[in-house]
């Protein structure tokens, strides 16, 4: 039996969106993340797959989307990753509220959570997002992209995801199996439906936290909801050991699937949320130079031979470019 290496934290979060251009404009121009990969949903190649991340597409920074103008609206509820939170440097929330005012982004009042200040808002499809002000250490592994947002305010990867679950206890046991530790419980605030929020912490500095809350409020997958949460299992050996631990926990993980930029294993955790285990390599710069990430449509493996057909069925999109570089 292989010893399980604790996950360093979240690798990426994948969501469902509506209009592709609106999705790209918001995540690149408004939030200041870099489009590090423009590809297709490998299970539904008629749909784009966009990857937004830090300047180098570092593990723990990529928010990805399956955008489709015809996607039906979803409803955030139980058995979902209901909130996705990003880290921003301490002292930057005033900047973000001013930026949201300038860009017509609706946001809620700040809340305090586990000693940190949280700014909740939604993207154009209604996807619930949060910014959490934290101290960014000098040796932080993320690399801010500064085309639209100055470095001192730029998003620095994931902070956490919040899971809404009918019964959080089995999921908590699974998170412990994956190497996360319970670090606190407090009264839920804002629109969270449960009365208690329990936080689990992973071993790494980015995408560290998973919060779980009890709720029976029914959800529905669709536009404006999270499709799955991926956790880092850096090597194949790490992933296989974690896969076996998940299987021993009574779940049904898939075999490893090659997703071109990482290798993946999928399973639904006890509460019904789709989890993924993702390796660190080969990375988003394995098929494009670092300074050209996101510039072209990349079609993995077998899909390249169908490029003409696939491109004909995808709407045209334009990556936002800053008219003037931001002042640092």
Automatic annotation (TrEMBL):
Organism (species): Halosegnis marinus
PROSITE patterns given in the database record: VOC
UniProt keyword annotations, A-Z: Dioxygenase, Oxidoreductase
Entries under Gene3D superfamilies matching the protein: 2,3-Dihydroxybiphenyl 1,2-Dioxygenase, domain 1 (3.10.180.10)
Domain (VOC): residue spans on this chain: 9-134, 157-280
Protein's name in the database: Ring-cleaving dioxygenase
Record SUPFAM superfamilies: Glyoxalase/Bleomycin resistance protein/Dihydroxybiphenyl dioxygenase
Region feature Disordered, mapped onto this chain: 309-328
GO molecular function, one term: dioxygenase activity
InterPro entries: Extradiol_RC_dioxygenase, Glyas_Bleomycin-R_OHBP_Dase, Glyas_Fos-R_dOase_dom, VOC_core
Presence of the UniProt keyword rRNA processing in the record: no
């Amino acid at each position: 039996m292989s010893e399980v290496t604790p996950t360093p934290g979240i690798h990426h979060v994948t969501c469902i969106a509506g209009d592709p251009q609106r999705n790209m404009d918001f995540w690149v121009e408004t939030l200041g993340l870099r489009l590090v990969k423009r590809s297709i949903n490998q299970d539904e190649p008629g749909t784009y797959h966009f990857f937004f991340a830090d300047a180098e597409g570092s593990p723990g920074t990529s928010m990805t989307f399956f955008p489709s103008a015809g996607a039906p609206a979803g409803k955030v509820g139980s058995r979902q990753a209901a909130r996705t939170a990003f880290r921003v440097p301490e002292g930057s929330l005033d900047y973000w509220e001013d930026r949201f005012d300038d860009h017509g982004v609706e946001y809620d009042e700040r809340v305090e959570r586990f000693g940190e200040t949280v700014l909740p808002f939604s993207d154009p499809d209604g996807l619930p997002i949060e910014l959490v002000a934290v101290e960014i250490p000098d040796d932080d592994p993320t690399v801010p992209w500064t085309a639209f947002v100055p470095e001192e305010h730029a998003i620095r990867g994931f902070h956490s995801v919040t899971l809404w679950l009918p019964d959080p206890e089995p999921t908590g046991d699974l998170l412990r199996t994956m190497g996360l530790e319970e670090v606190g419980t407090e009264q839920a605030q804002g629109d969270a439906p449960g009365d208690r929020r329990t936080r689990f912490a992973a071993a790494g500095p980015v995408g560290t936290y998973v919060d779980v809350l009890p709720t029976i409020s029914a959800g529905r997958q669709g536009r404006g909801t999270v499709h799955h949460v991926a956790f880092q299992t850096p090597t194949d050996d790490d992933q296989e050991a974690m896969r076996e631990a998940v299987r021993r926990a009574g779940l049904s993980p898939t075999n490893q699937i090659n997703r071109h930029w990482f290798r993946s294993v999928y399973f639904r955790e006890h509460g019904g949320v789709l989890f993924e285990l993702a390796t660190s390599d080969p990375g988003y710069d394995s098929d494009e130079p670092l300074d050209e990430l996101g510039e072209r449509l990349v079609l993995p493996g077998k899909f390249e031979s169908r490029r003409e057909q696939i491109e004909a069925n995808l709407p045209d999109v334009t990556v936002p470019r800053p008219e003037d570089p931001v002042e640092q």
